[in-house]
Amino acid sequence: xxxxxxxxPGPLGAAAAxxxxxxxxxxxxxxxxxxSAEDEEQQPTEIExxxxxxxxxxxTRLLLTKIPFFREIIVSSFSCEHCGWNNTEIxxxxxxxxxxxxxxxxxxxxxxxxxxxxxxxxxxxxxxxxDFEIPAFSQKGALTTVEGLINRAxxxxxxxxxxxxxxxxxxxxRIDEFIVKLxxxxxxxSPFTLIIDDPSGNSFVENPHAPQKDDFLVITHYSRTxxxxxxxxxxxxxPEEKLxxxxxxxxxxxxxxxxxxxxxxxxxxxxxxxxxxxKEVIIMATICENCGHRTNEVKSxxxxxPxxxxxxxxxxxxxxxxxxxxxxxxxxxxxxxxxFELGMAVLGGKFTTLEGLLKDIRELVIKNPFTLGDxxxxxxxxxxxxxSQKLDQIIEGGIKAHxxxxxxxxxxxxxxxxxxxxxxxxxxxHYKRTFDQNEELxxxxxxxxxxxxxxxxxx
Length: 459
What we know:
Layout lengths: L13 E2 L17 E2 L10 E6 L6 E10 L5 E8 L6 E7 L7 E8 L8 E4 L4 E4 L4 E3 L7 E4 H14 L1 H7 L1 H17 L6 E7 L5 E2 L11 E6 L3 H6 L13 H6 L2 E6 L6 E10 L5 E8 L6 E7 L7 E8 L8 E4 L4 E4 L4 E3 L7 E4 H13 L13 H17 L4 E7 L5 E2 L11 E6 L3 H6 L19
Parallel strand pairs: 2-4
Antiparallel strand pairs: 1-3, 3-4, 4-5, 5-6, 7-12, 7-14, 8-11, 8-13, 9-10, 9-12, 15-16, 16-17, 17-18, 19-24, 19-26, 20-23, 20-25, 21-22, 21-24
Helix pairs in contact: 1-3, 2-3, 6-7
């Protein structure tokens, strides 16, 4: 059953007149300022807009802000003093991500109903146990909770019930029965599954156990299909000119892009590099002249390996922090002593040192906005502080620990300082991938032999 487009009572409102109140002067610095209750200069802009409920003029308030280590967003709120109608929405102001994301959450208790959720316009919400789906672009984006998502769906289904009871009584009765089932879900009498699938990659579901792994929240990153690219308005890439192999090895390629921090025009440099005792990789680096932001990303220059690779390093000395490291997008990282696991695609591909990666992990965990401020649970700050201290001790060599890289695609690398001899503190295992791992890499549906037979014309 689908909630369709009936969830929202109407559009936010169209600008129809000069501003109701003078717009706030832009603050110095970036247009999108980090969200903070202590920033008094960060004030919303007010615009007089047409109310689509009573057709009188109401007020729209826009706040351009940035959630640290997540996304730039635009929070908009409309209210009408004539009829009392109001509406609040959230829009992603950043770029569409390179991959889509799917969150699969198993709800087991009332505490799971309070998990914070960022749901964009392009996200599809499903509850398989009820065969219920809210299609993409049928609701506006929202910063809410799991319970808030269900309440929104209930409000949308109830909206046109009086009209249905007058014209189609049988359908109205079935919808009433379904609304009762949705309301029963909020009591969590039995576990159920919530799936949020966002091709744009800009949705988010809170992990209240961070930095530890949440066994009941599965995050899957995937490549978009052609239909999903068209739905998001992305133009399919055309044929590219083939460059000579020697040119690719010796030339630094450049292409235009936008800075991920300030969205100003920037340039990305790309180079094919050979890593000794490993393989070729593509290193991409972006430097923004406007804000000074720097970022680098690494892509594998070869194919997916026949076997997956698991690298286990026993960190026993501070000199281990200087080992070169290549982490591909398909590689997960685990530190058993801290009960910490970093999933695939998080932090992207990186070519750095072991110390550099551990510091990136620390920044990612302790500065997550959903573990700070009013949204954090009691004791969570202390748990994050303890995690940060232990990670610092590992970096300084005060604690011996195991560092595990597990890459099903076999495209990750950790430097062997004893090469070409074996490293006594490092164990490299090659294993056969499972069906699920092949599915995540898109290999199950890939046919590399005998595909010509399917292309021959039938006679």
